[in-house]
Amino acid sequence: MNLRGISFLVVWVIILGCGSCNHKSTQTRDSQVIVEKTWTGFKQIFIESNGRVKRVKKSDTVSEGQAYAMLRAVWMNDKAYFDKCYRWTEENLSRVRDKGDNLLAWVWKDGTVVDWMPASDADVDYALSLIFADMRWSGLNPVGVEDYGLKAKAVLSDILEKETFVTSGGRIYLAPWILDKEEKPEVFPLNPSYYSPAHFRVFYDYTADDRWLELADTSYYILNSLLTELDEQKGVGLVPDWCGVDRLDRFHVLPGKNSGFGYEALRVPFRIGLDFMWFDRIEAKEFLGGFNCFLENQMKINGQIYCEYDYNGQPIKIYESPAFYSCYYFAMKLSDSDYADTVFEKIQRSVLNSDNGLYYQSKDEYYSNCLSWLADGYESRCIKNLFRQGVKNDN
């Protein structure tokens, strides 16, 4: 090799070394491209020009979709689309004018709200997106809607006032919707996937209201209890889509709701993963480790992980989904699973081309496209706690 060739080799080794120092592997760079292009695809396919996020199959809009899109927009530093979605949400889903609170109506279709009852997971994600917007674009909210931070605080106040309840032992819970304060049910409904201790810690940092830390503690009380037992059924490391809790903080099957693991509970490893990523909580690491044991066992037995299981761990339907894998990825990656890379490859194989953008699985799959990008969001370091990092106006 001549001197010129040796010099070139040395420069190339230095470049590769610098890339390693910055923790930017080839996979991370690929994930950044995928995150950007799937956001472009999501906007093309699922967000109308006025900021409405549509469920293609049902031709309607739900509050969770608006909140998912707004969180993704603020993480992508896409103020134009955040503001479009924020304005549409306030003009069409806000309960302020009709119900007198700052929560969001659940379902909108054909120009009107068809279900005014709020869903607390959407309200929680909506509030977080507004807090992050207040960090990125403080004072630059669009004309005609409330300041990001003021709206976030109003939503958080109404969540605590209308979407929580306290049991006899004094433990506070997040209800899935507004419960009648006059009723005294023997069992209160719970959706474990609505609990996000990382969100609650951000809310505490933002408002200094201790109830948010209590809800973070309740999150782990619920999840760790459900990992092991539900109505005397022995658990295998999964949590149910739905359950009930009585006044003595004991958990039960909720009549009429799925007590297996499925399209609700898939969000749990993602939400708990955030608590470890953002706050380094050991209880998050421990929970994810227990959950990961089930996932690894499925990979050993089947070479794949399915989407719907009963509480005892038996598959209900034999099929795979990038949305499920993307949420599973948080448990596997943060537990240092040997199968994490295999799962990640499965997710990326579901990415398809759409004009100038990308999408996951199918253009009809609104829910899948809301969640399937999360693993790439993790790898690209897009999913950040913008409040703790103190991000200011970038524009």
Report what the structure shows.
This protein has 395 residues and is mainly α. The protein has helices spanning 3-21, 26-46, 63-75, 79-92, 96-99, 120-136, 148-162, 197-207, 211-228, 268-279, 282-302, 322-334, 340-348, 366-371, 374-379, 386-389; strands at residues 60-62, 107-109, 112-115, 164-166, 172-174, 187-190, 229-230, 233-234, 243-246, 251-252, 308-309, 315-317, 351-354, 357-360. It is globular and about 55 Å long. The relative contact order is 0.12.
Q: State the helical fraction.
A: 40-55%
Average pLDDT level: 91
**How many beta strands in the DSSP annotation?**
14
In whole angstroms, the N-to-C terminal distance is 49 Å
Shape: globular
Rounded to an integer, what's the Rg over CA atoms? 22 Å
Q: Give the amount of beta strand, in percent.
A: 5-15%
Low-confidence runs: 1-29, 391-395
Structural class: mainly alpha
Order of helices and strands: HHEHHHEEHHEEEHHEEEEHHEEHHEEHHH
- Main-sheet strand order equals 1-2-3
Largest sheet: 3 strands, antiparallel
* SS field, number of helical segments: 16
Provide the fold topology.
Blueprint: H1 3-21, H2 26-46, E1 60-62, H3 63-75, H4 79-92, H5 96-99, E2 107-109, E3 112-115, H6 120-136, H7 148-162, E4 164-166, E5 172-174, E6 187-190, H8 197-207, H9 211-228, E7 229-230, E8 233-234, E9 243-246, E10 251-252, H10 268-279, H11 282-302, E11 308-309, E12 315-317, H12 322-334, H13 340-348, E13 351-354, E14 357-360, H14 366-371, H15 374-379, H16 386-389
Antiparallel strand pairs: 1-2, 2-3, 4-5, 6-9, 7-8, 9-10, 11-12, 13-14
